[in-house]
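Hey, I'm writing a tutorial for new members on how sequence and structure tokens pair up, and I'd like a real worked example in the thread rather than a made-up one. If someone can provide the structure for the chain below, I'll link this post from the tutorial.
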Amino acid sequence: MALPKIVDREQWKAARIALLAEEKAMTAARDALSTRRREMPMVRVDKHYWFEGSNGPVPFIDLFEGRRQLIVQRFMFDPSWEDGCSSCTAACDELCDGLLEHLHVRDTTLAVVARAPLATIERYKAKRGWTFPWYSSFGSDFNYDYHVTLDADVAPVEFNFRTAPELVAKGWDWMLDGSTEQPGYSMFLAVDGQILHTNSVFARGTEWLGGSYAFLDLTALGRQEEWERPAGRADIVRGAIPNFSS
């Protein structure tokens, strides 16, 4: 295992102060990026989507639960599967009542949507002991329209805003093999009865929406993924979250 070198406290402090300057620059850059994100234009959602929830069928607007903003987490759960994706399961294990309440205070609802039938979802939700709102989009175009279920027979394939040829060029041609489920989040705003799509994130854009990676990035061993540098820092631990390196 290739660990960092051991130095005295003064050398460590000097290195930490140098790194702090880079961290502050990154914080400023992230704040600027967040501003640009908030300035993005929006798209009106004209299609009328329906979902199946614990209390029966509901229109898209009901997922907001009366709040102004909605974050939809797309859970990878093909209708033919008995259990949900292990990656999405790990992410949902980090959703707690406290997190949801903090979002609610900011007039924001988080809902999970999967393509599996509601009965399958309810069984898996009970098995995991989860309490967050989870809806089935079974039979709906929702997953295809927002590019988390990829099937060229249903809709043109696009993932993380890359077209099918761009995915092939990147070495992700496996995404074009039949029907595949992918992770992603989409954000919506309700204004005067209209639903507006404001943002979507995929691949590594989703990792900031969970807690474990942010914690691990502060440690000497990091996430323990193959792509991380310096190499050989720790034995590889296969993470439960997809290893999208870019």
